[in-house]
Amino acid sequence: MIKKEYQRLLVGLFLLLGNWSLGAQISLFCPPDSVLCLTTSCDTSYVLNPLSATTSCGVMDIAYSYAVNGSSFAELPASGVLLANLNPNTYDLTILASDVCGNTTTCDYSLVIVDCQAPDPNCAPFEVVFLDDAGHLDLLASDLVPNPTDNCPENLTVSFSADPNDQMRSFFCRDAAEPQLMTVFVTDEAGNQASCLVPVFVEDPFAACRELSGFITTEWGEALGGTFIEVKGTEEWTLRTEEDGFYSILLPVGGSYLLRPCADGDWTNGITTSDGQLLQNHLANNTPLSPYTLLSADVDNNSQVNFLDLLTIQQLSSGNPIIIPDNRSWRFFQAGFAFPNPENPFASVVPETYLINDLEQAQLNLDFIGVKIGNVDGVASGPTTDLSALACNPGTGKCGGTVFWDQDSNCIPGSGEPGQEKWLVQISNALDTFYQLTGPDGAFQFNVSPGAYTVQVFVPNEAWTLCQNEFPVTITSDGITYLSIGGQAASTCSWPEVDLTTGPLRICDSVQIALRYANRGTEGMESAFIQLMLDPDILPLSASSPFISQGDTLVFPLGFLSPGETGQIWVDGFLSCEALVE
Description:
A hairpin with a 6-residue loop joins strand 32 and strand 33. The strands form eleven sheets. The chain has a five-stranded mixed β-sheet with strand order 2-9-8-5-6, with no helix packed on it. Strands 10-15-14-12 form a four-stranded mixed β-sheet, with no helix packed on it. The chain is mostly beta strands. It starts with a helix and ends in a 7-residue tail after the last strand. The protein has five helices and 38 strands.
């Protein structure tokens, strides 16, 4: 017979074994990962407390221990443990809970200590630096911020931009003209940044620099502010005139330099019917114009003013966007040039630049006269800043290529496949669109800012098609993006084109007629000819090409006209004194 005390022991043992065998469980409520921001110092403390837990074991006596970053477990008392001197880092915490029944469970979570405090650059109010005897200085950003501070001061980086590696700037003579506002960045190891502005005064203690300066105005003294000037030579730079048209730059002694103002685009600026009327009066009645006005009237830049310039000005005055490939919309000439023959400024070369070799003394009167091409009455507004900058500094990226006749239809340029002259090429992006006509060999090249563009070629007529209609390109500052664009015959045919223009018609006076012809097709023309039917009041006197006179009709035999071949014929005649001119 078993004694009662042994019975109680066995019952207790059975109860304990029963709890174990029935799968008693312990549940630990695990917190989420925590992030602590450091804003005043570079370390902090963290109190690690026991977590809330439950157990199915009959006795709610739960013991806790902890480990940090894989360390051995240590006891975690009910009052918690202080983790001190925690620097920016990630701490992996493990909490182990166990009950009297032998059940255990763990909780893993992370404590992330982050440095959230940006450094203090402690920038000086200004800094004075000195060029060497060659007019040059390399400056480190840390020279401008010698004592930055931070809550975590180790390994602070000082730079001239948000890129911590951008730590040096070069200064030249041109920087000595006025204070240079430099933005300086201080970055800590956590990536926190702060910046400040430091005015830098660049001094020239060795007198290594000389000034070149002048004004850019119109013929009538109106300032052309905002005009860009390109400097080429020993040093290269682009500067801009002030509101009163003044410009100035400091350059190293002994260098050679070329100064050229630049502006292009906006051809219709200032051009109205008044310009056409003034030019027509000049051509018809020899009304005198100033030499600069005559230079303005030479729209096609062929060193003469004639009715073709008049026709172009009339087109521009109507707002038609036309392409003038051989000229810029603004031209700038040396202001001090003395015209040997003011009635014919084309008899001499009018300098459009200043060339200074072996600079020794300052030159303060390098003035230019700006001329808006086509604006005969002189009322155009000055060139826009964007257009002036584009003309001077069209960009470091280049996109060029060739438009060729893909005669074997494989879209690959081959030997003997000719280039296509005077095909229109367009390059564009969301902001800009530029056009160019291909040269005699089909070549084209655009100088544009780096970026993404689309290149398109426009066929001259329905006889042609393209291997590809659009060419997406990404233009970089390195080298040239080159395209070979094939044009294929859509049909086998010739495509003759003839344009006729005349100069001013005055009774009892000479008249000039221009004929321009081309075969824009894919097949040559046998025995091509042009028939010109004249008004009975026009007496033909001579022509630049042989002709056959058939009453009022002149026939110009051209012979075989190859695909792409172009030409021009001039006809001189006399308008009858009894003619009626409307």
